[in-house]
Design goal:
Elements lengths: L1 H47 L3 H8 L2 H14 L13
Helix pairs in contact: 1-2, 1-3
Length: 88
């Protein structure tokens, strides 16, 4: 019986995580893609010896960049994420 309760708890947690991931998948992909483009632009700017901030703004305006960083922080589970926090 104990094993079944623990299994149900983990299944509940896993299902909640999957639902959250499906709900957030498009926004996560958009942010990861965008930050990949920004990273490439920064790498190129450093290699060329040009302004790194201008490299970011070649991809998107600064206010949009700061918003995307905020969005990424809200979507992040954090480094100390524990699946058990989804168990209720």
């Amino acid at each position: 019986m104990h094993d079944e309760l623990v299994r149900q708890m983990f299944n509940t947690s896993e299902n909640q995580q999957h639902r959250k991931l499906r709900r957030d998948a498009k926004q996560i992909n958009r942010i990861v893609h965008l930050h990949g483009q920004i990273g490439q632009s920064i790498i190129q700017a450093r290699a060329d010896g040009t302004d790194l901030y201008a490299a970011i703004e070649r991809v998107l305006p600064w206010p949009d960049y700061t918003k995307s960083v905020e969005d990424a922080g809200q979507l992040s589970q954090g480094e100390d994420f524990d699946a058990l926090e989804w168990v209720r």
